[in-house]
Amino acid sequence: MTRKATLRLVFRLLVGAVFVSSGIVKALDPLDFAQQVRNYRTVGQDLAFLVALYLPWLEILAGAFLVAGILKKASAALISLMLGGFIVLVAVTIVRGIDVDCGCFGALSRRADWRLLLEDAVLLAMSLAVVRAKKGRVGGSERAS
């Protein structure tokens, strides 16, 4: 396995694990997560509850698929979309001056701030590296030439 393939494997496992763990924490307390979604002041209560019921399971599945190496590019693309949306949401919230916990890890969440944006941008770069990998070369599946 080349150095790039090893790095992509590390990216795949790290990003996948973050999404699995984040999703599990949210799924265990959907009411708390619904309130955290509502705190962003971008959606109503009904949509916040729908997000709280379905988004954690989407995170768990996409993260688990990424870790397991199942549909790696599709899973990484879905995670990239979620990260991109969250980055925009947090940036808009910061600009609006709303002080809110990020909701990333349920009750263990911290403030949504510029540092969080940087961390999510790093995760996004990692997931995009998996998406952009050439066929057969996404971490853990590189073939010998």
Please, could you describe this protein's structure?
This protein is mainly α and 145 residues long. The chain has one domain. 71% of the residues lie in helices and 0% in strands. The N and C termini lie close together (11 Å). It is built from five helices and no strands.
Q: Describe the global form.
A: globular
Number of separate strands: 0
In DSSP terms, counting alpha (H) and pi (I) runs of 4 or more, how many helices? 5
**Helicity range:** over 70%
Outline of the structure:
By secondary structure, the protein is mostly helical. It is built from 5 helices and no strands.
Question: What labels describe this entry?
Answer:
globular, 71% helix, 145 residues, single chain
Write the layout of secondary structure elements.
Blueprint: H1 3-28, H2 30-39, H3 45-68, H4 72-95, H5 114-132
Helix pairs in contact: 1-3, 1-5, 2-3, 3-4, 4-5
